[in-house]
Design goal:
Number of domains of chain B: 1
CATH architecture of the largest domain in chain A: 3-Layer(aba) Sandwich
Helix content of chain B: over 70%
Order of helices and strands of chain B: HHHHEEHHHHHHH
Strand content of chain A: 15-25%
Radius of gyration of chain A: 22 Å
Mean pLDDT of chain A: 84
Oligomer: heterodimer
CATH topology of the largest domain in chain A: Rossmann fold
Structural class of chain A: alpha/beta
Strand content of chain B: under 5%
CATH class of the largest domain in chain A: Alpha Beta
Number of helices of chain A: 16
Chain lengths: 435, 289
Amino acid sequence: MDRRKFIKNSAVVAGTAAVATITDFPYFFVKKFAKAAAGDTIKVGILHSLSGTIAIIERSLHNAELLAIDEINAAGGVMGKMIEPVIEDTQSMVQVFADKAKKLILEDKVVAVLGCYTSASRQSVLPVFEQYNNVLLYPTLYEAQECSKNCFYTGCVPNQQLDDFVPWLIENVGPKFYMIGSNYIYPKETNREVKALLKAHGGIDVGEEYAPLGHTEFSTNINKIVAKKPDVVFSDLVGDSVIAFYKQFAGFGLTADDIIIATPITTEQETLAMGPENGIGHLTSFNYFQSVDTPENKKFVTAFKAKYGKNEVTNAVMEAAYFQTFMLAQALEKTQSTDADALIFEGLPGQEYQAPGGLVKIDEKNHHTWLWPKIGRANEEGQFDIIWERDDWVRPDPWVDLLYPNKDCDFTNPGVLERLKSDSKDRSGTLEKIS
Amino acid sequence: MESIITQFINGFSIVAILMLAAVGLAIIFGVAGVINMAHGEFIMVGAYTAAVVGQLGGNTFIAIPVAFIVLALLGLIVERGIIQWIYDRPLDTILATWGVGIILQVAIKLIFGAQHYYVGAPKILHGGFPTIGLLPFPWYRLFLIILAIVIMVITYLIMFKTDLGLKVRAVRRNRTMSGCLGIDTAKVDMMVFAFGSGLAGVAGAALAPIKSVSTTMGFPYAVDSFMVLVLGGVGSLWGVVAGSGLIGEAETILSFIYNNVIGKLLVFIFIVLAIRVFPKGLFGYQERT
């Protein structure tokens, strides 16, 4: 398709979609386009930054998704067709995400898109997916408090990382918590919930502190922490700060036997970069670690290393990127249709898959994913020994009950859908639980 | 009270880190008159040099001189390749060095990838010695304090006890007159740029074991270094000492009493007020024109 034709076509489709939204005209024009596009392959968009500041993380997700597509195609593809990945590089720039998402939907006519990493990028593409009625599968753990009909969230939400972790720490390590985080929304929201959990389970909040993003001098904070004598330092520091904090903590002669660092953020990548000797004994809560002992994970890790190199490490976000691709394939197989509404209302909700970290399921109501919380303790190789594992999967709750008792999404309830349509701008607004 | 004293002692290590980071920038700015926006990236390249030396089996003691040489050469290339043509256009040197910084970031990312690199402290500097505070004082931080003092002394000796230093000071005071008296000012600029860049490399290699090593690590150091210069006064070694000392201790104590964010905020306000009273910085000198 040449450039001019593309612009013309996009204009037509955009126009149709605009008419459709304004007059509530049926979507059949758009649907026809989608059907016409389905040729001999099924096109799936891969929307990640392969260049720029966060490329290294997003490339690992892109790799996990391509590995899954390889495996699906090797097993015969879906609906008798091969999956064809359409890869777009979003260059680590938020504004590029929306353009590339539009291109994938309108020009390539993909049935769904696997992509995004940061919350900012997800939020910038959601309006596009809602406007053109396409499907986004998003693999990152995030602060939740969001729902979209067109988005399926396969990473952890706070209740899955904290609800078991904090009470476990209070019982097994000690009640006194000192919270330290980077100064932005995710750590602040996370700590709000940690504090609520402390209150509910008899923990004591002895301090709470935020460092500017990118801060790497923690001697002062460490002195303060020691003066308060906590049992647990709950860290939601991110990026460069994580590594500097663990290194300096160990530099002051503190080990996990003195004060334990507990976190929902530090993965295998960080423990290797800080030097495993600086991370030994500290705890991380996640639904997946590379050390998970399941046949599915052995296969995943082996296949990943075989394809991308023996020094590669896998982590929870990569696992989500991997299994969400299989879920999409299963959903397409189930509905035998490339229609977005079929995927959104029949294919993906309730879809289950035996993932490397355990059996996972997409929640019918809120489009997030049921996962198995685990606690890992960093060992001398920089890997995590799983010291606790929940014997049941945990329902995702985008609005944690402790803080927002009556709030949730429900896409199975027609009343809610109507309201969604009417105020699709305000996704993060209030969708009261109707039951 | 005990904690505050601990904090005060701890502050020396932060002062040392600031001094190490700022001295290279101060020399280049003070003598050659170039605001080196790539200073943070020079520190970053120094840290990556330490990472490479570490992978090859060397430790920090080897990495520091290696980083000095690597960065001095890099500084030389930048000076000869770009800066020498635009000395008389200060605004363009800002843009040009900024560009150099971006190029370095991208180049390092291409070579090493964007993940964090691991640099450990030498075995001999693990652990710490007891102080009156609750925590032992890490040997590595003591090493940083000593290193900062050594670097300042060496720089002082070069500036005030050698022939080259005499020329540098002459050029700094009055470039035209120095030229007329037969000093090769272009050569002085070149040497100064290379020396200052080398010191940035030393800072990067020395800080890598307690900080994180990534392509974006340079920027905060550049900001801190500029603050030190603005407060202390441009082109004076005593300015670097005074600026680092005040900012380091103030930030440590204030961060301890309040928190990091407020600590930084108060220090910035203090710097703004200080510039109002001392426009040239605490140790700035009047230029003879």
